[in-house]
């Protein structure tokens, strides 16, 4: 821990980077996967369990927490960490993703975004300054700039307009953030699938000398190879001594390939959302526990795992729970998936430290390709 925000790059292995972010509330080992706790909860999980899987940091969402319980109420109650009983770092998304995902419920102009609440229809205006104010009321450790995220495919002219607007909002967010010892504001590179726009965005954000940089607007409809190409264009422009965060990504394969290109931080709802729908990520690839083949299989999902959900519960029981729509099924599979993601990150960090990341990737992909255990 440290009184100030600090990123230390410890080792590189080709493009992959091993490091750590030190903050007053704790150290984030990178490459890191950050479970998503949108409204102050990682869905279907106790936060003690989330921590036990190996998570150093979780996310909250500015838009959703603004609506309920409201940022002002969270502040009166002592901040988000106290409210949810999570003493470690929290990163808050600025609401920029909702500019895309709730496009039918918002109006956008130079000053910001006016949202029509999906909860009760009330109107809420979020400017760059208000976004930072909300994140401050939440007492977030890493605060994201407000940006406009564009779904792909999109016209280059529209992508450029959104990118330029996001840059202007980044400047306003930096002013609003000011000097907050021990905390950080990250800028967000936009530019869709247009390399020249990605480079322009990264160069302009670098000039702002922020404490970290995210790559946004990817995994929003484009193929994986396009996402990776945008990383290859963007990351060389960003400063090597600051953390790089790929927002909303992704599958285990996305993570491996993005680490190889220099990404340090990830978040995604995929492990918990998939778990709630009966899909497990394992060292042998994806497993749909709903399938009839698991109905009388007393083997666990992964007898090598340290996670009780992976190791101590049979596939037959998980199958029964999911097919019976019991909440416990989604809870156990979410727990298993988060544990698998954190075990993957631990393996990545160890491999970079030992200068064998390429071998680790090959071994992991080979194991996925083997497929699940043979049916009993």
Automatic annotation (TrEMBL):
Protein keywords: Glycosyltransferase, Queuosine biosynthesis, Transferase, tRNA processing
* Molecular function as annotated in GO: tRNA-guanosine(34) queuine transglycosylase activity
Q: Known catalysed reaction(s)?
A: 7-aminomethyl-7-carbaguanine + guanosine(34) in tRNA = 7-aminomethyl-7-carbaguanosine(34) in tRNA + guanine
> Which residue intervals make up region (RNA binding)?
248-254, 272-276
**GO:BP terms for this protein?**
tRNA queuosine(34) biosynthetic process
Domain tRNA-guanine(15) transglycosylase-like per the UniProt entry, residue ranges: 15-368
The keyword Ribosomal protein appears for this protein: no
Q: InterPro entries per the record?
A: ArchSynthase1/Queuine_TRR (IPR050076), TGT (IPR004803), TGT-like_sf (IPR036511), tRNA_ribo_trans-like (IPR002616)
Q: Gene Ontology terms, cellular component aspect?
A: cytosol
Positions with a binding annotation for substrate: 93-97, 147, 190, 217
The EC number(s) attached to this protein equal 2.4.2.29
Catalytic site: 93, 267
Signal sequence bounds = none
- Pathway(s) annotated for this protein in UniProt: tRNA modification; tRNA-queuosine biosynthesis
* PANTHER family in the cross-refs: QUEUINE TRNA-RIBOSYLTRANSFERASE (PTHR46499)
Q: How does this polypeptide assemble, per the annotation?
A: Homodimer. Within each dimer, one monomer is responsible for RNA recognition and catalysis, while the other monomer binds to the replacement base PreQ1.
Which family does the record claim for this protein? Belongs to the queuine tRNA-ribosyltransferase family.
Function text: Catalyzes the base-exchange of a guanine (G) residue with the queuine precursor 7-aminomethyl-7-deazaguanine (PreQ1) at position 34 (anticodon wobble position) in tRNAs with GU(N) anticodons (tRNA-Asp, -Asn, -His and -Tyr). Catalysis occurs through a double-displacement mechanism. The nucleophile active site attacks the C1' of nucleotide 34 to detach the guanine base from the RNA, forming a covalent enzyme-RNA intermediate. The proton acceptor active site deprotonates the incoming PreQ1, allowing a nucleophilic attack on the C1' of the ribose to form the product.
Put simply, this protein is called Queuine tRNA-ribosyltransferase
- Origin species: Rhizobium tibeticum
